[in-house]
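Input.
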Amino acid sequence: MIKLANFFVSLSFAGYIKLIPPGTFASFLSIVILFPIVEYKIISLEIFVAIFIIIFLLSLFFIDKFSNHTQSHDSKIIVIDEFLGIFLILLFYDQIKIFNPYITMMLIFILFRVFDILKIFPANIVDKKIKSAFGVILDDLIAGTYTIIILYIINAYY
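Output.
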């Protein structure tokens, strides 16, 4: 079970990449995986949302297993939270995309990474106070929410 948890939370071992920060690599990889699905509407939004919920629930379970096994909290190896943050943003893709899908993806990547690294309120509180699998994921979902808000604002003036 721990091998499966490790595989899952590290996003197929992407969390072990050391050339660049694992969260940055996982965010880029998440966009590479998810962008074609939303841009070319490979699956319906309803199925996309259902997949998000399933991955979210599995993440809670596997992060807990991995953290207990490694006696760590929010290990750098755990990057499924970045995947979920990008996934959340792309749930709103049709509302936030800008004239060019590649510029949109670049903005998503940059904004998400900035918000994920800076941990602007309430993400900073979540990061410090919620020491559970939910806390590991929630700060990335907050970063994703801030990204969505900024892209909505850009679209309002574009």
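The chain is about 75% helix and 0% strand.
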